[in-house]
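Fold sample X.
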Amino acid sequence: MVEPQLIRQYVDTGKVTLIWRDSCPTQAKSRRAAQAARCAGQQGQFWEYHRHLYANQRGENQGQFSVANLRAFAAALKLDTAPFNACLDAGGDTGAIQEDLSAARARNVNATPYFFMNGRAIVGAGSFNQFATALDTELRRLGQ
């Protein structure tokens, strides 16, 4: 998996900042999964939950993001399920998720994953070497 290596080499060392924005399709189940990840984030487990979501995808419209599965994922990650479930049920981040989606549309984001590096779009899941090359090039350009 590329993300943990990028985080160790670039984010944890302070070379770059990683900012996550939800860019989920308009289906309610995808927004619900985004809400679940944010609920996990309230317990400091956003990235773990995020990785679990991606690792357990079965294809579009296969039920992987049902409320029952999202709760089961939280339990599997040993989250405190009572506050997680209350957060998921409340949907308190719906507005922020919608704002992210609107911002993505305004920037013509039409695929996932989709990355911006200082405003330049990178579309698709690349290899570690592809991202490292792009990051190193940008860091050199910025004199870092």
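Fold sample Y, listed below.
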Amino acid sequence: MLIVNGDDFGYSNTVTDPVLAAYDDRLISSASAMVWMPDSERAAAAARERDLPVGLHLNLTVPFRGDIAPALARELQAELTTVFDAGSWNDSDAPPQAPDRRIADAVGHQLGAFRAQFGEPSHIDGHHHIHVHPAVLGCLPRDIPIRPVLRAPQDLKRPADRRDKLISRWFSTPDVCVGLQQIHPAFGGAGLDVLSYARNHTVEVMVHAQIPQERAALDTAQWREALAALEVGSYRALRR
């Protein structure tokens, strides 16, 4: 099965609208949404209207920009953004740099807000992949599927490392996740033949539809033909 997921849903109207357009055009099959951002509420309404499968795009790396974030959650977020940054997910062996309780509270705050707006999440992934940081993995609910560690196309068949094994033991998850720019010929990627891996495995392609070049790449005949040849679904199929 192939999952094509649009990230950052709800971050702003300039992100939400391209994700919705790509879903309406059947070029993606799933999305992950941020809470307490300027367009979160409108994104939630649009997702419910379409029955768009949406997961939580967990955010511990940038401040909340929406007006309705509770003061406690906003203050905790401000602290955690001094701990985690865009490169923190690479620290596969790093010890926790903040108390686990704070991370768990932040995850709980965002899950609660997501459920109130969007309903039950189809999955959890992370802004800047922060969900796979060792200090964060232990704070995620294990009954919700998560995105695996992003891989380069040439590494799809490499042996699982310690973190990969931990994720597959604790969570339901696709076998691999790759980025659109890593595989699409429009970016000089490895080629859409990589998607043939989805014939016998579950593969997620991470998409940022708000990037004009990515939106254009999704709208190519090559991409449409690739999707037509595969079973395309969402994380809903991975729920335990």
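Sample Y note: The chain has one domain: 2-238.
Also: The two ends are 16 Å apart (CA to CA).
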